[in-house]
Amino acid sequence: MREQIKAMAACGIEPQKIALVFNLTHSELFENYATELATAESEATAAVASSLYHMATSGKHPQASIFWLKSRANWKDNPEVVVNIDHNTPREDIIKRIKELEGSTEVVH
Q1: Residue ranges of domains in the chain
Q2: What is the pLDDT of residue 75?
Q3: Cα(69)–Cα(77) distance, rounded to whole angstroms?
Q4: Residue 106 and residue 108: Cα distance in Å, rounded?
Q5: Pairwise CA distance, residues 64 & 55, whole Å
Q6: Is the pLDDT of residue 25 over 50?
């Protein structure tokens, strides 16, 4: 029963609903299963984080790698580059500016 209570708490089920499932009062649940209720969420989060980490570092799940880097390493998507060009700008100048931007790490806000 302890493992079932812990699993339900890990999934975010409210204590009063867990107590109802096991025909316990709210007080009985907390008196007898306080440790399970207190640790379930943290242990579940650690297990998911570990799984995500292994997926991200396996090379088999690029989405997991991208998510990990965005959420843990503050990586951001590159913003779309918008260049204001006058309609009278010579074609050569436009090509030159595009080449400059392609090799640049310039950030414009």
Answers
A1: 2-72
A2: 86
A3: 11
A4: 7
A5: 6
A6: yes
Residues in contact with 74: Cβ distance below 8 Å, sequence separation at least 6, in sequence order: none
CB 49 within 8 A of CB 40: no
Report the predicted TM-score, pTM, of the whole model to 2 decimal places: 0.61
Query: What is the residue type of 94?
Result: I
- List, in sequence order, every beta strand (DSSP E) within the chain: none
Q: Model confidence at 109, in pLDDT bands (50, 70, 90)?
A: very low
Distance of CA 108 to the CA centre of its chain: 27
**Rounded-to-integer distance, Cα 11 and Cα 37, Å:** 11
Rounded Cα distance, 26 and 15, in Å: 7
Nearest to 5 by CA among 24, 47, 45: 24
Residue 84, pLDDT > 60, answer yes
Q: Which of 45, 43, 41, 72 is nearest to 57 (CA)?
A: 72
